Amino acid sequence: MMGDDEEAVARGSVLFYGVGHMLNDITAACWFTYLLVFITDIGLSPKDAAVVMLSGQIADGFTTIFAGELIDRFGHFKVWHGAGSILVAVSFSSVFGGCVPCIIFGNDSSSLQTIGYSFFAAVFNVGWAATQVSHMSMVNCITLNSTSRVVLTSCRNAFSMVANLSLYAIAFAVFHIRPSKTTSDVENQYRWIAYSSIFIGCCFVVLFHIGTKEPRLKEEFRGHGYEKLSWTFWFKKLLYYQVALVYMLTRLITNVSQAFLAFYVINDLRMAQSSKALIPAMIYICSFIVSIILQELTWTGQRLKGFFSVGGVLWILCGSAFLFMPGSMKDVMYFLSLVIGIANALIT
């Protein structure tokens, strides 16, 4: 394969690149696991909480498209990464640190809180998307060596696991050590989690920028007679819509379950506050272990469909258990968390 003769990327460079997405990963884990819980715990209605979450997702969708196009045209990966990281850190601390507009205007109305949290949720997702796109697209411009590209991506994924487990370890410690009795206690809990996450993530962002050089765009196929496809080409392919639909539904399962799991274990099962961290951590660890095992298999189209179907069936069973399981059987949730971890690994 063209580019495989190029010298492999040094281990140090791989590590410096791999830590570049830590801030995004650790804040995203906190965002999807605890944002809705935090907003409703401090007094906003479920409707207002949904508006806050939706504003962020809309901003993320648009920014991903435009950031990708601009980075493709102009490069400057580290500039985009650095700017996005700053937006992530500032906006994330503003969301979990309290309603900034409420402090400025001296008004704690629910409408102003919703507007304030929605604004910073949108800013957070703008920064998050810019950081993600610049970091992921950088791989193809760091090296043409296909093996090194796989190693760089694998290192990034490994540190994603570290980020998620770090978040849940921090949350477990905070929920266990600092029990909440008032709204102020709840706010302090999440501030500790958010600020700790930002500090850890920013440390790794600094390491990334120190150890990673700005890559130059490399036109891998220049002069080889390959025709550049128009972006409209894919909209004429049925497979494009099939893959998009499957991916969307898969992400819907994983993201929605992650966002509402904390509500379920606390409000329905009446489990300890620390379970908001322990249960997600168990799911993630189990999913990671199963993913490693699956990588050793030889994959065919039929096998992919079979494993995906098994994952879907497991999720249906878990969903049924959530609907009908009485609160007195809350310890079963630990077993279900392992099953969910297996299911997530199979469908993703």
UniProtKB/TrEMBL annotation:
The chain crosses the membrane at residues 15-37, 49-67, 79-105, 117-138, 158-178, 190-210, 239-265, 277-294, 306-325. The keyword ATP-binding does not apply. Keywords: Membrane, Transmembrane, Transmembrane helix. GO terms for biological process: carbohydrate transport. GO terms for cellular component: plasma membrane. GO terms for molecular function: symporter activity. Belongs to the major facilitator superfamily. Phosphate:H(+) symporter (TC 2.A.1.9) family. PANTHER family: MAJOR FACILITATOR SUPERFAMILY DOMAIN-CONTAINING PROTEIN, MAJOR FACILITATOR SUPERFAMILY DOMAIN-CONTAINING PROTEIN 12. This is Major facilitator superfamily domain-containing protein 12-like.
